[in-house]
Amino acid sequence: PEKKGSIIGGFIGALLGAAIGAVAWALVGMMGYIASIIGFAIAFLADKGYDLFKGRQGTVKMIVLILCVVLAVFAGTIGTAVWDIHTAYNEELNSLTELEKKIYTIPTEEEFMIDCFNDSEMHTAILKDAGMGLVFGLLGSFGLIKAAKKKQSEVASAPAVADATTAENEDISA
Q1: What are 22-53's pLDDT values in tens digits?
Q2: CB neighbours of 18 closer than 8 A, spacing ≥ 6?
């Protein structure tokens, strides 16, 4: 049987859907929260994007969704970290007096950001937050894929039933 759908189209759709979820992940993170439901939302949006862009169904869909969920969760987590560092930098800068600003060598925001991202505590925090998002995002992905496989098997068996009904009707009319 010929395979229907486009892997590339599905990947683009899933990536766009997951990107929307990544923005939501970052926004919730910027408010100081980690919401596991956003991990599910990333998977849901990636799934919808994949189907909207007519991605090929089957194992390839699962691989694409998992990849997109992982990328989105890390992108959202990094986005949150960048925002947190930006906020901390500006709060510190604003707390300095004019005299302190003249006396001390103050790093640029970019230098401050690089220093923060090189800090092992920052790595641990990012991995912890991303890990939580991945758990829920991947659980959401597997749930969606399981539902899609069930739907696909129902659709595959439906035409056989319709054909049998048509054959019976032809026998009756003959």
Answers
A1: 999 999 988 888 777 888 889 899 999 999 99
A2: 42, 45, 46, 49, 68, 69, 71, 72
CB 16 within 8 A of CB 38: no
**What's the rounded Cα separation, in Å, for the pair 15 and 72?**
8
Two tokens at 104?
Answer: 């001390």
Q: Are 10 and 55 in contact (CB under 8 A)?
A: yes
Phi, psi (rounded to 5 degrees) for 4: -100, 145
CA dihedral 128, 129, 135, 141 (to 10 degrees): -150
pLDDT at position 167: 46
Contact 47, 64 (CB under 8 A): no
pTM above 0.85, yes or no: no
Q: What is the pLDDT of residues 52-83, one digit of tens each?
A: 999 988 888 889 998 999 999 999 999 999 99
49 vs 65: CA distance, rounded Å: 10
Whole-number Å distance between alpha carbons of 141 and 148: 10
Distances (CA, A) of 54 to 8, 10, 48, 69, 100: 9, 6, 10, 18, 59
Q: Which two tokens stand for residue 48?
A: 């919808």
Per the listing, tokens 């696909």 go with 152
